[in-house]
Amino acid sequence: AVVSTQSTSSGINAEYGDDQRKKEFKKFEMEKELRHRMALRAMNEYDRKVQEALDEESKTKKKEKAQNMKHPGNKEQLQDVWESEGFDRETFDPKTFFRMHDMNGDDEWDLFEMEAIFEKEVEDLFEGLPDVEEDEKYEEVARMREHVVEHMDTSGDGFIQLSEFLEYSKGKDFDHNDPWETVFDDQLFDEAELTDFEQKLDAGETKDLENLAKLEAAKREEKIKKYEEESKINMEMLKEHSEKLKEAIMAANKFKDLEAAKKIIADAAKEGGASGDKPAT
């Protein structure tokens, strides 16, 4: 489960906590990016190319999953929660839903009660994705909670009263289906910021990152070795063949049937020869 790392008794504290959370998450993401780049540099050419292809595949998976996310707090998203709790989505009732998630019965949702509503959806978003960190899950939950407060909390106290929720459920925004931008979609920093961040690390912080990068490189190399063993394909081919053939090899890794994998590679090699693809460098 995604567990909140914040505690609050007022909207002011929640706002301060959110500002601090965003700063810490940006720092976390920059450290993660630097660590990953260091890990790539620590790998041999062959493993590095495989890992870069896997990184691209991961980005594609994240994009596909993000497209299925419902806008937090709108009717369709809350109906999904309602249905996951064993009810027919067509019987969704805003007042009943609110009281079901008002855990202490005080007729308002606090930070924790709001975030609990989104936990399952966020778990589903991250399920099956590689290199998932709990910080990223919590950031997604927190962003959803922030969005709900921004649109429903008309009193500005940081909580959602029953009356505020019911009023929102009668408005046009409750039925909108605009896409939700997940944590995957948000570019928190650019190359200049990352470079500046790296330059400001002290010797101890840099050493810690380098040590973590070595561990990451070893972990990724072990995973690549597993691909090789499962597919029985000579991955050295990545050094000398076209991008198209590289993609075919990565696809072939997913097959347990060696003959099917060989056919994919053979077909890609023919296409590469016909189109005049140049070997990858």
Structure description:
The structure is a single chain. Helices cover 64% and strands 1% of the residues. The longest helix has 32 residues, at 11-42. 25% of the residues are buried. With 281 residues, it is mainly alpha-helical. The chain starts with 10 loop residues before the first helix and ends in a 6-residue tail after the last helix. The chain has a two-stranded antiparallel sheet. The protein is globular.
Biggest sheet strand order reads 1-2
Briefly note the structural class of the backbone: mainly alpha
Average pLDDT level: 81
Q: What share of residues are in beta strands?
A: under 5%
What's the SSE pattern? HHHHEHHEHHHHH
Strands, total number: 2
| Radius of gyration, taken over Cα atoms and rounded to an integer in Å | 24 Å
Helix content: 55-70%
Uncertain residue segments: 1-13, 277-281
The number of helical segments is 11
What would the principal axes of the Cα set say about the shape?
A: globular
Give the N-terminus to C-terminus distance in angstroms.
44 Å
- Main sheet, how many strands, which sense, barrel? 2 strands, antiparallel
Main features:
disordered C terminus; mainly alpha; 281 residues
